[in-house]
Amino acid sequence: MAGTRRRDLGDPTTGIRSDLASDYAVPGLDEALAMHDVKYLKVRRHGKLILDLKINDDIIIIPSGVDNDLPVYISEIQTWKGKIKAIKKQRESKERWLIVAWYYSPSEFQGLNAPDSKQNDFGSKELVFVSTHLDVIHWETVDGQAPIAMFEEEDIELDEIPESYFYCRGVWDDRKEKWLKKRPAATCICRHRYKLHEDGLMHFCPRPYCHKWYHADCLEQHKWIDADLTEIEIELQWEMSLDIDEKHSTLAESIPHAPLRNMTVHGRAPDPYSFIPDDLLKLARQPIIRGGDYGAIGNAAVVLRARVIVDRVARHGEELLDDWREHVWLREKTTEVPGSNPNDAAKVKNALLNAGGGEHFTAGGNKIPRHSVPDFWHRIKDGFEVSYKCPGCGNVI
Ligand SMILES: [Zn+2]
Ligand SMILES: [Zn+2]
């Protein structure tokens, strides 16, 4: 979904032609719907491919209604964004038309005056997809493809969403005035939803019945802080908090079990933690965080997988998986993300080694590395270890 741009928005040397729709007699929606369907639209100018569009592509559209005679410079925020629902060919003129459904900016959505449109906790790059609002546009008004990510609050395996992307997490029906896909509920004590790349750090409680994210700033402000525990007590609480029976069962099932350790050793059974390498333990014994250096998606997938593997060795007598690093650091490729090339095995391997991987690792297949995890440092305040406490269950997060 890499954006290809025909013009540089806001660049005074190029300018933007606006109000292009007025150059054409745009057919009505019913008229356009009755036209012949085509799957692709490729536009070449002087032999160069300037537009390459297909159904379901997200696109940036130059707004109409701006004075066409002036050079106009508009920001990316001001451009219109839509999703191509159909590409149509006019029989007589061979003209091509696009039927698009619109992404609304927060202010456009609030302007609907619908019951839910008063929500005011949108991120500056957040959009609401209004799948029922269709319009016909001419391809000449398209500026290029738009990188718009669908953000799923609960999906810890989501591709990282770059800061330059617009994102969407709600689909609205403007006729029935209701959500077809609701924006996720706000989970923090402040009752505000997560603004990607704007909110600073958020901590997650992965325990049964919690599964909630909290802003570090809100925890700080409302004093959800524990200063009574030692470093090892805090680390053990992190290591042992996950919900294998419910929410994280699929994640746990995706990691194969190792054989049970041979328990017929003479004398005292060795400490199970002696089988766990420090770098794995360090991953399991840190908080689950998103935002800032942790990226918009955060470290949940890596940390929870490390906790599953540590749990099996420490408390269920299993051997350590030889390829534990792969299970922690690699994931199936889902969609194309700019900057990640799944076929570049060397790059994947380097990313893994930088993230603490080792010599047993073999890269390849259809896997890509998870987002790297910044080094975690304990917080010391007035000489004491401090950690955040979950407002839901009171335990360390
Ligand atoms: Zn908050
Ligand atoms: Zn909790």
Automatic annotation (TrEMBL):
Q: Which GO terms describe its molecular function?
A: chromatin binding
Q: Which domain of life is it from?
A: Eukaryota
List, alphabetically, the PROSITE patterns matched.
BAH
Which SUPFAM superfamilies does its entry note?
A: FYVE/PHD zinc finger
The chain positions of domain BAH read 51-183
Q: Which InterPro entries match?
A: BAH_dom (IPR001025), BAH_sf (IPR043151), Znf_FYVE_PHD (IPR011011)
| Name this polypeptide is given | BAH domain-containing protein
